Amino acid sequence: MSDPVLSVRDLVVEFSSREGVLTAVNGVSFDVAAGEVLGLVGESGSGKSVTGLAVLGLIDPPGRIASGSIRLKGEELTCKSEPELRRLRGRDIAMIFQDPMTTLNPVLRVDTQMIEAIRAHEKVSERAARDRAREALARVGIPSPEERLVSYPHQFSGGMRQRVAIAIALLHRPAVLVADEPTTALDVTIQAQILSEVQQLAAESGTALVWITHDLSVVAGLADRVAVMYAGRIVEEGRVADVLERPAHPYTNGLIGSVPSRNRRGEPLAQIPGMTPSLANLPTGCAFAPRCPRADAACTTPPGVTRAGDARAFRCFHPLIPVEAAA
Amino acid sequence: MLVYVIRRLGQAALVLAVMATLVFIAVYAVGDPVAILASPQADQQEMEAITRRLGLDRPLYEQYALFVWNALHGDLGRSFVYNEPALTLILNRLPATLELALTALLISIFVGIPLGLYAGLKPQSLGGHSIMAGSILGFSLPNFWQGLMLVLLFSVMLGWFPAGGRGTTRDLFGVPVSFLTLDGLAHLILPALNLALYKMALVIRLTRAGTREVMLQDYIRFARAKGLSQTRVIGVHVLKNILIPVVTVLGLELGSMIAFAVVTETVFAYPGIGKLLIDSIGRLDRPVIVAYLMLTVVMFVIINLVVDLIYAAIDPRVRLEEAKA
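^ Those are the sequences you sent over. The predicted structure of the assembly is below.
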């Protein structure tokens, strides 16, 4: 693998609350290379969105990055001041969010929101910024961009709004784009269009994608590598084909089994028993153990990272793939 | 848009007619103004002469018909007490009250919104808590008491501002205003502050609640992810969203500040329409009361209309035509 453009090491994000300090992200590490797509998969509350926000330095109090390192193009971000981070955000690292209905400010016109994004990082004239905004809209497939520039967000459909958000995020051709479930709220057909467009745009500008989702089918179609998160930890990581075809962690296996199209007609849908544990009340050992069919006494201590072959890693004492592969 | 305005004015005319009728009858029912107007020594004959002169000897329906007829010709009657046209009487005093209310409005906006923003952005800070505690005082302490305390503190103890009256005025486009003279300004500050305190507390709370809600929105997060400065995020993205409820409430409050500045005007002996109303009610001066309330209705309608227009200007999602439904 070439030098990673984004490198996260042992990231810990904590939130202080009435119940004490909650660790939403607990020792997460991953790398993404230029032009690569990493799928970050997990259920709600697994810490995947918090990880994304942390990478942009957008964790607000009472949350904080407690330890770990985030390097963007070799530069350490965790010790940067807010003004320094502001200069990086939107220019070198951008983010799009889940609900296109709420990511654009309802009371500002699209041109205002695009031009301010351009001029936040480059000293260009209003007119030049406007031209670039128009081109950016055209690039994400918005018809008659000149007219659409003076529209308000409520005059767009959900898919169009997400396109506008993507156009804004890619204005400065960032090195990394963190996409927090940007297609979850959209129709399947629109979802497919947007996925392929983002993939193409990212490939054109060499932007690395961190694609956060709970939808394994999206990951299967889009990502090069996948990291599966559970209760604040990455429990399994590897190339998409490897992980989806031969999952090592029982949780990954459960996730794959829960995809409805994998089930047979007429039979009850497969599911993982139990619920995601509350962060205030995590088991001492493997967080998945209470729901795991393979758990035994060994699982009451936290499992370490087992590396298996090239770019494959998991945290489990009883993996579903032969451990000999680790050699 | 035009249809919308015409519709609103039509509704206003209806409200005006109903209100005038109700007040007319209500004041008639309350008592006989002649008993208050005539001197205690007046005999039966003099009393009857006054009654006849004021047209109060006729049956109610005749009085009412005459009132309606005159009102349609733009005549709202003459004051029983001053023997001047009621409308002239009110309009002569209106500038003083308008000036007072607008000053109070400006104070509540330019002090209230920044304080509310601060409290909304830093809810856990000492400053945030102090602002909220202060706003509770603004809400709950009676207005007249706040007025008295202002007089006590700034006029009696510190001697910074005069305790009452309007001060020197200067004509601006033929309207006497006091904010152009130093003396007038000194007279204006305390009553305006008194009138503003409650609204300021309201603005602070609205702004704070709005800020806290808007700060959690995805579009604020997205604006920050774009790399916008904090100033731009708060000054444009947050502020424009929280202004919508603030404008609505302030519009209504401006109406009530003009129409019912009674308490403040009484405490500060300020010669505005509020004081005129109180005096007129005390003397059962029916034409003045009716004219005053009709004027109030007109004012509320106009203010609401303006608020709707501002609303449409700051929130593109508001379509005025839709309001017809």
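The first strand of chain A starts at residue 4 and ends at 17. Chain A touches chain B through 34 residues (CB under 8 Å).

Shout if you want it in another format.
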